[in-house]
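Incident log, structure service

09:12 report received: a user says their structure output differs between two submissions of the same chain.
09:20 pulled the input from the user's history:
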Amino acid sequence: MGKLRILIVDDQKLFVDSLKTVLLGYSEIIGEVFIALNGEETLDILKNHHVDIILMDIHMPVMNGIETTKIIHQKYPETKILILTAFGYDEYVKEAMKNGAVGFLLKDISSDELVASIQGANKGLKIISPKIIDKTYRTPSNVENQKSLPEWYFQLTPREKEVLILAQKGYSNDEIAEQLYLSIQTVKNYLSSIYEKMEVKNRFQAMRLAMEYKIDTLPIVIPRTETDRT
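09:34 re-ran on a clean worker, output below:
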């Protein structure tokens, strides 16, 4: 597999210039980095250049990230789009995901995590920032939803919740391990603990319960530790 071609889309020139410099430092992985300051510039670049991954901002002049994402997904479906956001998993990010984005990351993500996420997206994985906090979670409607959650939900650790969400979305154990930087055995251990707490016998039953309570709509903050890599 050749080096990746990246397009950074953001109207903050200093930010995109700095991010381009960072990415080009990973020369064994990143081959070329393009820059666009709005959606129209993005589409112009894509007319003349193949791009593997796009790092897309939401709020931009001329053409915003949601509209741009929708057009790119229709015209260039092989190009993966990752949303870069400073605000967490808000309604704008949700809309971009509905229109074809494959994941979302906070702008304060470390450079190593960003490049790992880019590689994951290129392999077809859905990418969720480990630091994402859904700021809409504390609205009254979500507080009411929390009251209806089953007891087992509150027994799960943050990491178990994220493993369960990825399993709910159809990820295999190998894909969960790669997404969360865990070993296969660690994923299996988490799943065993999840099944026990949920009082289910298998993955299918756990997925069904997770979908019933829509736990993938709830915020989870996952601290990544060295012990997770065992």
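09:41 both user submissions now match this output. Likely a transient worker issue. Closing.
09:42 reviewer note: The two ends are 28 Å apart (CA to CA). The chain has two domains: 4-128, 138-229.
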